[in-house]
Amino acid sequence: MPEGAQTNGQRLKRLRMRRRWDQRKLSEVSGYSLSAVRKFEQGRRSLDRADVILAFSKALDCHPTEITGQPYTPPDSDLDGQAAIASIGAVRRALLRHGRPARPTDQEVAEVDLITLRERVAKANGHRQRASLTKLAEVLPALLRDLQVAVEVSTGERQRKTYDLLASTYECAMQYLYKLGRSSDATLATERVLWSAEKTDDPLRVLAARWYDAGEFLAIGEHDEAGRLIDEALTSLGAMGTDSPEKVSLTGAFHLKASLNHARATDNKAAEQHLQKAQEQANLLGKDRNDFQLQFGPTNAAIWSVSLPVEMGKGQEAVRRAELITRSLPKQYASERRSHHYIDVGRAYYYNGQHEQALEAFVKAEKLAPQATRMNASVRETTHTMLNGNRRTALFEFGMRLGVV
């Protein structure tokens, strides 16, 4: 069976057997019941929640992607998917060349133009926000090269501005790689974001980069380290005198990150407290902002209010919140964020036993962001589990597009 067509439970079983453990041993070490382990391995229960995957990965001493099976390779019939992954090698090479002498040609030096570079970075971020991975793949390699040349040949304030553009483009690369399941390469990109941000001498820009750094530790279940980074950032923000919109926006974004960290650490009370603090910051702003490409405001806080109970496996609460906000979701809001919202809504409906509505939400997410949705580990696992109980035409066709059947 192709790797992409396997369930997380099948991979869990293989990892367990590699250690020569029986199901009872895995149950004892992970803290999950023997019945739950059996259902996960048999594909009768969706193994899609991050906190559960992290518990098993810690028990088996493996990386979470060994359970989720990432990265996935799009089928040959998915031409857009193949185009989306075409630049992975070139982006990786650009990341590896970071900090090394660019050795530009005379023509490259002559063509350095900050205004043009700023326009190209804005275009790349537009592709990122629309989840247009194929278009982002087309522009990233050359843009990274040109910015690496530009920071090498620039000085003073001009160089600091160029480093800001480079940090933003590394963020695009990080999101591109993350959406395609290339976690180790995405981590490398995050390190480049941090390094470039520090060269800008902008305290807020540096803190924005640390928002992603905290996410790296959160993704592998290092909740204490993620929490320390978040707390340090919130302390730094609190010490800043003026409540500028940028500061308020960044403070709210860190409270959202804290809420997710606590949710995955199964501290539900703290998770809700940080969500409430984020909502207070969103109300203080009064409108959606996109400072440092970290979208924050009333809309994003509302979206996270659904994500949080999904992370906790509270289907009824997530569905209740989703039905309150989905209709009012601005259509002009970033496709990437709206698609992720519909993924969360689909998972909420699945937890609530409403499989028809779950499929409808996943299809909405796919229309907004085809490749990001098809590559999403939770969508693939949940769809796999639903197919075990019902292989009706619409669900089967969606599974075919995902490559799980």
TrEMBL record:
Coiled-coil segments: 268-295
CDD domains: HTH_XRE
SUPFAM superfamilies named in the record: lambda repressor-like DNA-binding domains (SSF47413), TPR-like (SSF48452)
One Pfam family here: HTH_31
Top-level taxon of the source organism: Bacteria
Keyword annotations of the record: Coiled coil, TPR repeat
Name listed for the protein in its UniProt record: Helix-turn-helix domain-containing protein
